[in-house]
Model the fold of this input.
Amino acid sequence: MIIDFRRCKAEPLPLYINGDCVERVHSFKFLRTRISDNLTWSVHTMATAKKAQQRLHFLRLLKKSGLVEKLLVIFYRSTIESILAYCVTVWYAGCSVVDKKMLQRVINTAQKIIGCSLSS
Done:
């Protein structure tokens, strides 16, 4: 990954280490946090929201099976909120408004499923 903010970007030369060409990527995952070459957090927030939305399915199933609200909140905090809050001090301040709304939409959906307000 090459981070380059110049106006006139030249195509970088291939990089070789021990005779092997190093692959260039636009983003990579390090400690469950996705870092992109333009230093925006859109890739990370989209992946985080997608992962949290997958967990919302299980929250819906638990609600349909008649689980009480207290246990639904515990499930939310342990499986969904933990995904949303992981490394939040690193990436949340750099998120765009669109990315923040995407994450808030996941929280709002969980609140509707559970039927109570979730302080996050």
Summary: Strands lie at 16-17, 20-21, 27-30, 33-36. Residues 111 and 117 are 6 Å apart (CA to CA).
